[in-house]
Write a sequence for this structure.
């Protein structure tokens, strides 16, 4: 029950600058901290009880001073990462989730409509609202920066293959794929909505891969380009309910020749939903249903495997991240590799 | 970090009626639940992962059905209590806490101003806004219903005493005090803002205690009525910072004759702030600073004791609730009894 209060108290300690102040000057009283950050000492004392309770800060009862506890051992850049996630949750999710019941009933993002007067999904809203874009893109850059290299290490791309990066946005995934998998004749094509073309081609030029990467505009629900050996689907299937996932995978199956491959990267729920090390089911239903799509959400890797097979593919490999070997990561991703065999 | 998402996901399961439906018909599929509550089965599945993870519900993978888990053992009235607290947090606190940083900087309730255009504190806002009043009063009735009888069991009121219920609101505390402590000549007087008088006197008449209870209108920060043997201060000191608590207690000390007593009931933080059984420091800073007063918050019982002594009283008894013997209670209250000895 105290979840939202804990979140806002801890975030407020950061936003007021209390943590920064204590990183610079240890052993300050509530009065000294209050003077520095512009808050009444009584309020500072109230707010700091929780980080003291959690061991993040220490309080010395004799001198009445505060100093860094567990936060002392956290490098500056890790604290910045933490703060980026907290800020994303605050800006993109916190108030929007108030309308989760209405969003589930209507299948729309009621919070986005109430708070921004915006009808559509978050991916459309970030184009118009810089506060949403900054908070969301900063977090997503961290997610893709961590997971896309891991994905490419586990995915086999034959030399000289023609690769389609499905829903590849502005081409950064294609660029990374070309660089990690470069071979004579390898070509990576970003497929996304036509309005992404200009920025995508600029990115290809800026990264010097314009001779090996290209762009095709279109809609995955209408027609998927043919003539490719390998299709990559990253950070995409989790945005949809089963009916749409099946439409996408069926479209990919139709577009591939026999022997063609699909490689999927997606956040996954643990096979044992009760696994306490995963925060996925604590987080994603609210993220997708109330804040980003009004539908969708990840599945277990085994569920995705079943769906991929239902669409006619033969699954050749699945890989799931093991959270117990990834300190600080709360969400596991999975990979499915499959081949069109008939 | 997943605190707000967990809160809204679980609350949404209640608000959509999923829990009610499963209390009536166990072993329903997501499709059946979705049809009953008016939501897409995919969304129902996403939302129910978390209560399954927590053991509140059970999911049978073979039949794909859900049934009550731990919730099965919870009596209907306990679930209602839980829902009242969840609803109070949603309506009175959730969106308001978004502005906790600004509230701490300004010492005002920025959320109340942004969401309701209201300047003032929650206790004033509930008079104008029925949604806030209903959510807040329902929860407070539970808190006082649980704690005031406990308080009176531990407080000694001499036969025939003249008792002042400081900040006694609309007289319900005076009525309970008279009933529990009745003796020949006992008189309990509610002291609060003059605008409470009409409703207070109505309450006295409705409960048949109008000959033993009375009302005095005034402001605790201006002048406290004299001529009383015992002063009760319940659910009040936690609303203020130290400077105001000292003003109130000093005023009470001045108003009492030597030998006069004060009895205080207040939520308290545990002496060991790190005590994991207490949720007080996880909750109250946000409740008071962002949602009700823009200041204030409970203290440790030992801190209140020091403050009471600083104001000239001799403390004769302190009692703290032991949360380990009170299953389901997250917040401990304390009692301080003190006498004016000089």
């Amino acid at each position: 029950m105290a979840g939202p209060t804990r979140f806002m108290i801890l975030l407020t300690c950061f936003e007021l600058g209390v943590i920064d102040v204590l990183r610079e000057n240890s052993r300050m009283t509530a009065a000294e901290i209050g003077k520095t950050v512009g808050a009444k000492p009584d309020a500072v004392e109230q707010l700091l009880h929780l980080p003291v309770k959690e061991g993040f800060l220490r309080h010395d009862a004799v001198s009445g001073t505060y100093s860094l506890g567990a936060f002392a051992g956290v490098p500056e850049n890790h604290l910045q990462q933490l703060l980026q996630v907290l800020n994303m949750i605050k800006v993109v999710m916190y108030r929007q989730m108030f309308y989760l019941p209405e969003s589930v009933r209507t299948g729309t993002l009621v919070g986005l409509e109430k708070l921004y007067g915006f009808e559509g999904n978050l991916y459309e809203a970030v184009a118009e609202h810089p506060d949403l874009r900054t908070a969301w893109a900063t977090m997503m850059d961290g997610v893709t920066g961590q997971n896309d290299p891991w994905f490419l290490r586990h995915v086999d791309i034959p030399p000289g293959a023609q690769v389609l990066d499905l829903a590849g946005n502005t081409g950064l995934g294609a660029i990374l794929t070309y660089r990690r998998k470069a071979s004579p004749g390898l070509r990576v094509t970003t497929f996304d909505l036509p309005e992404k073309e200009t920025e995508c081609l600029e990115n290809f030029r800026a990264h010097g891969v314009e001779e090996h990467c290209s762009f095709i505009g279109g809609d995955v629900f209408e027609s998927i380009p043919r003539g490719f050996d390998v299709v990559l689907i990253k950070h995409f299937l989790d945005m949809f309910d089963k009916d749409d996932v099946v439409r996408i995978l069926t479209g990919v199956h139709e577009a591939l020749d026999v022997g063609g491959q699909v490689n999927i990267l997606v956040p996954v729920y643990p096979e044992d939903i009760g696994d306490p090390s995963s925060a996925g089911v604590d987080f994603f239903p609210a993220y997708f249903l109330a804040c980003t799509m009004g539908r969708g959400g990840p599945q277990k890797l085994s569920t995705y495997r079943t769906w991929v097979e239902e669409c006619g593919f033969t699954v050749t490999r699945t890989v799931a991240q093991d959270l117990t070997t990834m300190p600080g990561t709360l969400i596991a991703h999975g990979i499915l590799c499959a081949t069109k065999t008939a």
The two ends of chain A are 52 Å apart (CA to CA). Chain A has 14 helices and eleven strands.
